[in-house]
Design goal:
The complex is a heterodimer. Chain A has one domain (2-255): Rossmann fold. In chain A, 39% of the residues lie in helices and 27% in strands. Chain A has 8 helices and 12 strands. Chain A has a 6-stranded mixed β-sheet with strand order 6-9-10-3-11-12, with helices on both faces. In chain A, helix 5 runs parallel beside helix 6 (178-191). By secondary structure, chain B is an alpha/beta fold. Chain B folds into 2 domains: 3-279, no CATH class; 384-442, no CATH class. Chain B is built from 9 helices and 21 strands. Chain B has helices spanning 3-29, 32-48, 64-68, 117-123, 125-131, 142-150, 385-392, 398-414, 420-437, and strands spanning 72-73, 94-99, 102-103, 107-108, 112-116, 155-159, 169-174, 183-193, 198-206, 213-223, 228-236, 241-251, 256-263, 268-277, 283-292, 297-306, 312-321, 326-335, 343-352, 358-367, 373-381. In chain B, strand 2 (94-99) and strand 3 form a beta hairpin. The longest helix of chain B has 27 residues, at 3-29. Classes of the chains: A alpha/beta, B alpha/beta. Chains A and B meet through helix 2, strand 7 and helix 3 of A and helix 7 and helix 8 of B.
C-alpha cells in the first residue's frame, strides 16, 4: 500500500529525513518510535503533504502511485489520513460542518453521492458513541477550547468518519490520561481492518500496550535504524533510546 | 494657483452655485428655521471645504478626486420607481423606499410611522425642529454640512412609547442617475424611538454599478428612556460610488442600541457612527464588517461618548481586505468626568487576503473619569496557514478551505444580525464576493 524509498526531506536548510525506507501493506499496523528530533513527525507530515518540508531525494508510492506529486487534499481523497500531533483550532467553523464538508469532499472524489444532513448525523452519532465522545463537542467550533484529550479523540472521530485506507497517527497518545488513552486506543482498534493500514508515530511504548502493532521501527537521525516486532518496543521502554544512538554513532563512524 | 487647486475650487464652487440655484424654492418650501439652518450649513461648507489628508481624522482617506468632481443634485421625483428592487426588499418587514433622497412610499399604524420628513416639517414643525440638526453637528464636518444644506426631503421614523415591533422596518435608499452628470443625493433620516419601545430597523443603500455618484446620508436617532433599537446598516452601493454615511444617536437613560454595519460596495466609503450615551445605564453595541476588493477604500469612524455613569459599550469591527483595497478603523471612546463606572470594550480584527491590501487601525481613548474599565485591541493577519493545511489534509480543496475560513471570520459579525434570513443572504453575498476575487493555489 505504502512504499517509501530513500526519502530525504528538509525544512529550510536543515536536512531532517536522511534516507527513510518503509513498506506498509494493507491490514498492517506499524509503530514508528524514536527520540525527539529523530524525524518521526516530519515523516508523518511529508506523507500528508505539508509544504513546510521539501523532498530532496527518494520517493513515496501509495498504491503504486507517486504520492509526492499530489496536493494534500488529493492525498486525503485518495485515502490518506493524518491525525495531528497538535490539532488546529478553527474558530467560527462548527465541528459538524467541518466533518461534513470533509466527508463530502472525499465522497465526491470517490464518485459517491454527498450525504445530506440527516444521513450524515446518523453516521456521526454512531461514530461518536463508538468513541465515547461528548456529543456537545460536535456543535462547538473545531477544537476551540477542547481539552488535550478531547482534541485527540476528535482526530480519531475524523478518522472514523472519513474511513481512510492509510491512517498515520502522530503522537496521538501524548498528553492523555489513562482513560482517554484507553478510549483513543479502542477507537483505533475498532478501525483496524484487513483493507486498512495504520502507522502509529509515538515516543512512548504506552499506546502499544493497547494497540498491538505488527511491526515496530525505530527512527534516529532521520533514518529507520532498526525494525522488529513488539519486543523491540519493550526493549526501548526498558533501555531508553541512548543505547541506540550510541550504536548509530558507531555505525555512522563505520560508514565514513 | 495650481491646476489641482483650481479643480478642487471648481468642485466646491459647483456646490455653492447649486445651492444658489435652489434658494428661491427653499424659501418657499421650508419653514424659516429650516431655511436658516440650511443657509448656515452651506456657509459652513464654503468655509470648510472637503477635508484633506492633513486633517488627522481623514489621514487615510483621500478625498481629492471627490473634491474635484462636479456633481449635480440628484433629481427629486417622488413618484418614480427604482431601476430594479434590491434583494433587501425580499426579506419581509415593513419596506419603505427612497429614490434620490425622497421617500416614494410610506407606512404606518398605531405603533409606528415611517414616511416623508418634508411632510413632517410641514405638518408637525415643532417636533422636527426640536430634533433635526441637533445631533449631527455640521460645524466641523463638510459632509454633514452639505447634507444639511441640500436635503430636499427625507424619512421620519417614529416608534410610539412602549411599542414593540415584531417586524423590522426596512428602509432602502436607491440612487438613479438621470443623465450623464454624476449625481449627488443627500438622504436625511430622523428616527425617534419612544420610551420603552423595541424596534428593529434595516437600512440599505444601493445604486447602479459603473456610475459615478455620491450618496451622502445622515441619520439622527433619539432613543427615549429604556428604548431598545436594533439597527442594521447595509452599504450595497454600485462599484463606482462615493458613499458617505453618518449615524448620530442620542441615547436616553437605560436605553439599548445595537448597530450592525456592513460595507460591501462603493469605490470609497466613509461610514461614521457617533453615539452619546447621555442617560445613566445606557448601553451600546457596535458591530462592523467591511469587505473590500479591487481598489475599494472603506473608512470606519466611530465615536462613543460616555457622558453619564454606568454605561456600557461593546464594539467589534472586522475587516476582510483583498487585492489592492484599503481599510481604516478609527474608534474613539470618550469618557466624560460624569461617566464613572463606564465599561467600554473595543476590538478591531482584520484579515488581509492579499499582499497589496492595507489597513490602518487607530483606537483613540479619551478618559476623564477615574473609575472606569476601557479596553481595546487590534489585530491584522492572514488566513491561518495551519488551519488551511488542516482542512486540506481532510480532503477540502485549497479554495474551499480559504473561503470557509474567511466566511467563518465574517460570521462572528453576521451571526449577530437579525432577521436570520438577512444573515443567510449576507453570508451568500460575502461568498459571491470572495469567489470573485480569490486567486489560485500559491
Amino acid at each position: 500500500m505504502l512504499e517509501i524509498k530513500n526519502l530525504h526531506a528538509k525544512a529550510g536548510d536543515k536536512l531532517i529525513l536522511r534516507g527513510v525506507n518503509l513498506k506498509v501493506r494493507a491490514g498492517e499496523v506499524h509503530a514508528i518510535m524514536g527520540p525527539n528530533g529523530s524525524g518521526k513527525s516530519t515523516l508523518a507530515q511529508v506523507i500528508a503533504g505539508r509544504d513546510l518540508y521539501e523532498v530532496t531525494e527518494g520517493e513515496v508510492l501509495f498504491e503504486g502511485r507517486n504520492l509526492l506529486e499530489l496536493s494534500p487534499e488529493e492525498r486525503a481523497r485518495e485515502g490518506i489520513f493524518l491525525a495531528f500531533q497538535y490539532p488546529v483550532e478553527i474558530p467560527g467553523v462548527s465541528n459538524l460542518y467541518f466533518l461534513r464538508t470533509a466527508l463530502n469532499a472525499v465522497r465526491k472524489h470517490r464518485g459517491q453521492e454527498e450525504l445530506d444532513v440527516v444521513d450524515f448525523m446518523e453516521l456521526v452519532k454512531e461514530r461518536v458513541k463508538l468513541l465515547g465522545m461528548n456529543e456537545a463537542l460536535l456543535e462547538r467550533p473545531v477544537n476551540e477550547g477542547f481539552s488535550g484529550g478531547e482534541k485527540k479523540r476528535n482526530e480519531i472521530l475524523q478518522m472514523a468518519v472519513l474511513e481512510p485506507r492509510l491512517a498515520i497517527l502522530d503522537e496521538t497518545d501524548s498528553g492523555l490520561d489513562i482513560d482517554a488513552l484507553k478510549a483513543v486506543a479502542a477507537g483505533i482498534n475498532a478501525m483496524r481492518s484487513p483493507e486498512r493500514a495504520m502507522v502509529l508515530v509515538t515516543h512512548y511504548q504506552r499506546l502499544l500496550e493497547y494497540v498491538q502493532p505488527d511491526f515496530v521501527h525505530v527512527m534516529a537521525d532521520g533514518r529507520i535504524v532498526r525494525s522488529g516486532d513488539r519486543e523491540l518496543a519493550r526493549e526501548l521502554e526498558r533501555q531508553g533510546y541512548a543505547w541506540l544512538e550510541q550504536e548509530e554513532a558507531l555505525a555512522g563512524e563505520g560508514r565514513t | 494657483m495650481s491646476a489641482a487647486l483650481a479643480e478642487t475650487s471648481a468642485g466646491q464652487d459647483s456646490w455653492l452655485a447649486a445651492f444658489a440655484a435652489r434658494e428661491r424654492r427653499l424659501a418657499n418650501d421650508c419653514p424659516r428655521w429650516l431655511h436658516g439652518l440650511k443657509r448656515t450649513a452651506l456657509a459652513r461648507f464654503a468655509e470648510l471645504g472637503f477635508p484633506t489628508t492633513r486633517v488627522e481624522e481623514w489621514k487615510y482617506t483621500n478625498l481629492a478626486p471627490l473634491a474635484r468632481t462636479v456633481f449635480a443634485p440628484a433629481a427629486y421625483f417622488p413618484h418614480a420607481a427604482p431601476q430594479s428592487p434590491c434583494w433587501v426588499e425580499t426579506l419581509g418587514g415593513v419596506v419603505v423606499r427612497t429614490l434620490n433622497g425622497a421617500p416614494v412610499t410610506a407606512a404606518g399604524e398605531r405603533r409606528f410611522t415611517i414616511g416623508s420628513l418634508r411632510t413632517a416639517w410641514q405638518q408637525t414643525p415643532e417636533l422636527v425642529e426640536r430634533h433635526l440638526g441637533r445631533y449631527a453637528a455640521f460645524d466641523r464636518h463638510a459632509f454633514l454640512a452639505l447634507n444639511t444644506a441640500f436635503f430636499d426631503d427625507g424619512v421620519l421614523i417614529r416608534i410610539a412609547d412602549g411599542a414593540v415591533l415584531d417586524e423590522p422596518l426596512v428602509l432602502v435608499h436607491y440612487l438613479s442617475p438621470y443623465d450623464e452628470a454624476p449625481p449627488a443625493s443627500h438622504v436625511r433620516t430622523l428616527v425617534l424611538a419612544g420610551r420603552n419601545s423595541q424596534a428593529g430597523i434595516v437600512e440599505a443603500w444601493t445604486g447602479p454599478d459603473g456610475r459615478l455618484y455620491l450618496a451622502n446620508s445622515v441619520t439622527e436617532a433619539v432613543l427615549g428612556e429604556g428604548a431598545v433599537l436594533d439597527y442594521v446598516r447595509l452599504q450595497l452601493e454600485g462599484d463606482q460610488a462615493y458613499h458617505f454615511s453618518a449615524l448620530h444617536v442620542h441615547q436616553g437613560r437605560a436605553s439599548s442600541l445595537a448597530v450592525h454595519t456592513v460595507l460591501l460596495g462603493g469605490r470609497l466609503t466613509r461610514a461614521e457612527i457617533g453615539a452619546v450615551l447621555a442617560g445613566e445605564g445606557a448601553s451600546t453595541a457596535l458591530n462592523g464588517l467591511y469587505v473590500a476588493r479591487a481598489e475599494q477604500h472603506m473608512d470606519n469612524f466611530t465615536t462613543l461618548d460616555h457622558a453619564q455613569p454606568h454605561s456600557t459599550s461593546v464594539e467589534l469591527y472586522k475587516g476582510i481586505l483583498d487585492d489592492r483595497s484599503s481599510g481604516v478603523f478609527h474608534g474613539r471612546i470618550i469618557v466624560r468626568p460624569e461617566g464613572q463606572k463606564t465599561d467600554a470594550v473595543q476590538r478591531n480584527k482584520n484579515l488581509l487576503l492579499s499582499r497589496d491590501a492595507t489597513i490602518n487601525t487607530k483606537p483613540q481613548l479619551e478618559i476623564y473619569a477615574d473609575d472606569v474599565r476601557c479596553t481595546h485591541g487590534a489585530t491584522v493577519g492572514q488566513v491561518d496557514a495551519d488551519a488551511i493545511f488542516y482542512l486540506r489534509s481532510r480532503g477540502v480543496g485549497y479554495r474551499d478551505a480559504r473561503r470557509l475560513l474567511t466566511l467563518a471570520f465574517a460570521q462572528e459579525i453576521t451571526e449577530r444580525i437579525n432577521p436570520p434570513m438577512l444573515r443567510e443572504r449576507l453570508n451568500a453575498e460575502l461568498l459571491a464576493r470572495l469567489d470573485a476575487t480569490q486567486g489560485g493555489v500559491p
